[in-house]
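User: Hi! I'm working on a homework problem where we have to compare a predicted structure to a textbook description. Could you give me the structure for the chain below?
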Amino acid sequence: MIATKAASLFLRRSIPTATAAASRSSGHVGAFRMMSSDTVTFDLTGSFETHNLDTAPNDTIEMTKEELLEHFELMYTMRRMEITCDNEYKARNIRGFCHLYDGQEAVATGINAAFDKEDSWITSYRCHCTALARGGSVASVLGELFGNVDGQTQGKGGSMHFYNKEHNFFGGQGIVGAQVPVGLGLAFANHYNATPGKPMQVAIACYGDGAANQGQIWESANMASLWKLPMIFCIENNHYGMGTSIDRHSSHSDYYKMGNHIPGVRMDGMNVLAVKEGMRFVKDYVGQGNGPMYVEMMTYRYHGHSMSDPGTTYRNREEIALTRSTRDPLEFVKKTLIEAGFADAQQIKDTEKRIRKEVAEQVKQAKSSSPPTIEPHLFQYVFSSDGGKEQNEFPPHIRMPDFAKSKWY
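Assistant: Happy to help. Predicted structure tokens:
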């Protein structure tokens, strides 16, 4: 009964109009207008709801063939990578916590498409695909999950702690909701370092519906509003806080309205075009010094909360199958490519085949690496004598579990 109620809630909110629902379930993309052989304008009517705003994202988005193909390739790579993680975890090549992102690919892809490299991004422990979008590779992601030195954080972080300073990706947080105050700090830094008279770089903290009522988030929202920081509070609403549906764990489930006077936007998180246009609007609004904004992505995860959760005790298989058949973000992009004349079915199959091969090759590459050694890898970036810059040195004494094996330098 709970699963059925959650499913109806998901469908009602994710598909705002009956026309859109009929169109997508029958496999058709919303109306579009051909601008040229390589550019199409797509209709996004019904993809957004707003709160405390006089403006809204556009109801159309113009896309080139190259852009849409690039989005599809990234999303399909994410999907294959997460399926590979599932297989490698079951084969016990990946240990510990592991939270998969398949089903939510349009969110990370759309945000990344709307952002600049200089914008700051921090997210939850469900971070593999965000790390991939933000300058990573399948080899670096899987290498980290295998605990090898060629992983993105040299095998020291694991599934929940990816990081890429060069691309302003700050993780990967292992504690529920703890990324949001850190994201606030990133927004403060962007505000502090902004050039007067020019738009600010923004900061986004992504978190799930299960974290949305935490006190640290309310405190962060208060500071962001007081100081008009370029902060985006992004709730990836996959409808279950671990194994508890939103109607059982939150008295207020319109998450984009949770900021009270802070403006908010709810968008279709299964449609990469809607996410891209929506986040373009949000980035522009926040970067112009108007203060923070709440964003609610209506999305869905196919796997359980983590690999230890089968994901079928609090929802039924029919609900998952219904979402796959009517709302899958990858199938939507494939149909969009075909109906816009950007690709045919065979070209898409060839692309998928190529990506599957590339993912398999990068997994082999990740496995060929080795775990970090005690010297120098394990104790690098622990002790610094120069104010935290790249150079570092070993601490004078490292206490090992077996005291006889302790190190003195």
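For your comparison, note the following. The CA atoms of residues 29 and 336 lie 6 Å apart. The first helix runs from residue 2 to 14. Good luck with the assignment!
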